[in-house]
Amino acid sequence: MSPGNGPEPVVDPAPHPAWLPDGALAAVGRRRVALRLPDLSGPARAIPSAGPDDSVVVGTLRAEAERATTVHGGVVVDPDDSPDLLLHLSPDLSGPAEGMSGARPGSPDGGFRFVRDGGRVAVVAATPTALLHGWFHVVRLGEAAFTGPDADERHAPAFALRVLDHWDNVDVHPVMGQVERGYAGGSIFYADGRVRDDLSRVTTYARLLAATGVDRVCINNVNVHAREARLLTDDLPEVARIAAALRPYGVRTHLAVSFAAPMTLGGLPTSDPLDDDVRAWWRAAADRVWATIPDFGGFVVKADSEGQPGPFAYGRDHADGANLLAEAVAPHGGLVHWRAFVYDHRQDWRDRSTDRARAAHDHFAPLDGRFADNVVVQVKHGPIDFQTREPVSPVLAAMPRTRVAIELQVTQEYTGQQRHACYLAPWWSENLAFRPWGGTGGDGDRVDGGDDARAVRDVVAAGGIAAVSNVGDDRFWTGHPLAQANLYAFGRLAWDPTLDPAALLDEWIGLTFAGSDGAVDPRLREVLHAVLGDSWRTYESYTAPLGVGFMVRPGHHYGPDVDGYEYTPWGTYHFADRDGIGVDRTRATGTGFTGQYPAPWRDVYEDLTTCPDELLLFFHHVPYTHELRSGTTVVQHIYDTHFAGVERVREMVAAWESLAELAPGAVPDDVDARVRERLAEQLRSAVEWRDQINTYFFRKSGIPDARGRTIY
Ligand code: GCW
User: Fold this and answer.
1) So what's the pLDDT on residue 607?
2) Pair 612, 594: CB distance under 8 Å
3) 306 catalytic per annotation
4) pTM for this one?
5) Ligand 1 pocket test: which of 167, 305, 407 has the largest number of ligand atoms within 8 Å of its C-beta?
6) Contact, 414 vs 406, CB < 8 A?
7) Which of 256, 394, 450, 624 could be joined to 300 by an S-S link, Cβ 3.0–4.6 Å?
8) 158: closest CA among 404, 496, 465?
9) Residues 349-387: pLDDT tens digits?
């Protein structure tokens, strides 16, 4: 389908180990490891049917310890036989060391305790899954876990819910393929129109996720087509197989469901959320799901969006719709993730008053307080659609009485489709750190606010975080081997959104490229930082200037097409003419979108002189000669960044190529070959972007480049 899919995956039976090669477990594997369990006699039980239970994870812990020690020469010992690493499952985390440092008050999850005493480490947790997270914490630390000073720390996730959404189809969709916006081959869950027989790779995936922090996966596309809708009913036993493959690593299964299911699957004449038969249908459907999968997580819904059915057909609103499902899943402790990605995709481009950026807030903010407790309103990080640069969605700050989650896109739909190296953690981190009521702004400007110093990451504590996965059945999981860093960093930020993106990159490098002794060549480390560290800003510089988005080829969204969406119904315009460019979203003269923000941002964005440069064209329509805060004009900025962006990509290519001499053999040949192939395409594509964008604006404006470089 789209050109982003790249060549066929290399035929190799074993998937790439990603961030868990055996070498990554060298430090733990060399040691004496023990597992202390409360009164569990015999081997780990299979998951009982009584309800949510992760005791199967105990078996996983044993297997992890056995495998690591077997590979690296350590040994699994009795807990009383002075182990170097003790994994202790205990309902009482406080134990002998009360008053531990690092505890997060009000943490939604018990997490685990990490105690180091004279070089011996104990990890204590109340549930097997939390203990497993503790095990991977020690794995990540490597030797440092054992060599640091005595410590007693409590680690718990900042977000209650940490989800990866898969836009995987069971049937290959005629336009979108097996995985919608997937750039890494087929689905790890489905092939040939059904759930795969061999789901071992799904368990391997769950292992990778457990080593980061993600603990829930929605296994099918939010655009629920006819075939996929049946996962909820006829195919439940198959879904149960997927759940069984994820469970050993403490990962719960969610399903995307169609709001029209009572009609399409149940034969009812309506899907009206206030209809008694419809309510009964959903209750019965939920009962069957939990009877089959006792630890099932819940439903994800895209309703009244891009053609998906929803409550509007019955004159009902999104709270009515979400609460219908919430009522059905509540007896089972289930959740409903209800997406706020709702807008008119049949807009008239001639109409400059309708603003897609406004839509989610217009629909959802008035509903604050009406959603049931087990509903999570899932909000894309920006008001438009996962663009390279957007302001933070004002919906995140507008629903104080609702559990709100932030949604990110790990799959690189708009950021190079895993053909371009583009490390997104700095971008996500900026969004999570944004303070809607004042504080540090997107480009580091300080903007004073009121008393409320909360950041987005605080606002979404109860609703958590979700992201669209970038994984497929490609040997490297993610097409571009370096795109694994995005999945890793997402999981880690989901656990702790305050982590530094550069440090996370370093962590990922340390694990992924660990040699059999656990060590990584420092020159390789340096090169990977040079290639990836600033790659999101580099991508921004040769693609989308100053907050303008969607200058991409319609449909597949790869490569430049400045006017590709300009005269379409999708509501994503830049309004470039001979005099200027940008969308006037001010209250004074534009769509009024700035008014959806609380102070101070509503005023900062409104005013041309205070609006951050990087978002200028998102909020304002200005002449090409408008002088930015940086001192350069808009059109000169466009030229400069596009020329500079391509040079940066050349440097990325050169840095990677230098490895052959600097650190021969540090990267496996197959990884090297794939990365080289992708970097070559990134350079070709960056040149294409530069030349099209620069030429377009030169021709529109008639203003030459002040430095006389080649524009066509
Ligand atoms: O960005 C858009 C994508 C669609 C996707 C939609 C969404 C699943 O182009 O492919 O549909 O977002 O988030 O629902």
Assistant:
1) 97
2) no
3) yes
4) 0.95
5) 167
6) no
7) 256
8) 496
9) 999 999 999 999 999 999 999 999 999 999 999 999 999
Those residues whose C-beta lies under 8 Å from the C-beta of residue 366, and which sit 6 or more positions away, are: none
Radius of gyration for the alpha carbons in the chain, expressed in angstroms and rounded: 25
- Residue of 306, 445, 577, 651 marked active site: 306
Handedness of CA 563, 566, 570, 573 (dihedral sign): positive
> What is the distance, to the nearest Å, from the Cα of residue 97 to the centroid of all Cα atoms in its chain?
36
Dist. CA 127–CA 93, nearest whole Å:
10
Q: What is residue 627's DSSP assignment? A: B
Alpha-carbon dihedral of residues 674, 675, 676, 682, nearest 10 degrees? 120
pLDDT value for 7: 55
Mutate to test the pocket of ligand 1, among 180, 224, 345, 381 (most ligand atoms within 8 A of CB): 180
SS3 state of residue 229:
helix
Question: Cα 284 from chain centroid?
Answer: 32
- Cβ(222) to ligand 1 under 6 A? yes
The CA-atom distances, in angstroms, between 578 and each of 135, 217, 581, 703 are 60, 48, 9, 10
Residue 60: closest CA among 239, 245, 198: 245
Mode of pairing for the β-strands spanning 151-155 and 75-76 = unpaired
Task: Evaluate: CB of 165 within 6 angstroms of ligand 1.
Answer: no
Are the beta carbons of 391 and 442 closer than 8 angstroms? yes
What is the predicted pLDDT for the residue at 224?
98
* Core vs surface per residue 614-635: b (16+ CB within 10 A) or e: bbbbbbbbbebebebeeebbbb
Tokens of 589: 């003269």
Contact present, 217 and 252 (Cβ < 8 Å):
yes
Tokens representing 539 are: 């991508």
DSSP per-residue codes, 513-568: T--TTS---HHHHHHHHHHHTTHHHHHHHHS-GGG----B-TTT--SB-TTTTTTS
- Which residue of the set 385, 407, 507, 540 is catalytic? 385
Query: What is d(CA 55, CA 204) in angstroms, rounded to the nearest whole number?
Result: 18
C-alpha to C-alpha distance for 407 and 376, rounded to whole angstroms: 11
Q: Report the relative pairing of strands 446-447 and 439-440 from DSSP bridges.
A: antiparallel
Six token digits for residue 493:
């930020």
Tell the residue nearest (CA) to atom 11 of ligand 1: 223
Cβ–Cβ < 8 Å for 490, 402: no
- Give the model's pLDDT for residue 91: 78
Q: Name the token pair of 292.
A: 């089959």
Q: Given this model, what pLDDT does residue 466 score?
A: 98
Find the 551 Cα to ligand 1 centroid distance in Å. Answer: 16
Residue 694's nearest CA partner among 675, 708, 674 is 708
- Any alpha helices (H) in 297-338, and if so which ranges? 318-329
CA distance 469 to 466: 9
Task: Return the beta strands (E) in 268-418 as ranges.
Answer: 298-301, 335-339, 375-380, 403-409
Residue 132 falls in which region: left (phi positive, over 0), alpha (psi -120 to 50) or beta: alpha
DSSP code for 113: E
Distance CA 18, CA 484 (A): 7
Bridge partners of 86?
A: 34, 122
DSSP E strand stretches across 568-663? 580-581, 622-623
Residues of the chain predicted below pLDDT 70: 1-13, 39-53, 94-110, 440-451
At 3 the pLDDT is: 45
Beta strands in 373-522 (DSSP E): 375-380, 403-409, 439-440, 446-447, 465-468
Residue type, 274: L
Ligand 1 atom at minimum distance from 557 CA: 9
Q: Rounded to 5 degrees, what angle do the CA atoms 568, 573, 574 make?
A: 140
How far, in Å, CA of 379 to CA of 497, rounded? 17
CB-CB contact of 160 with 216 (8 Å)? no
Amino acid letter, 652 = M
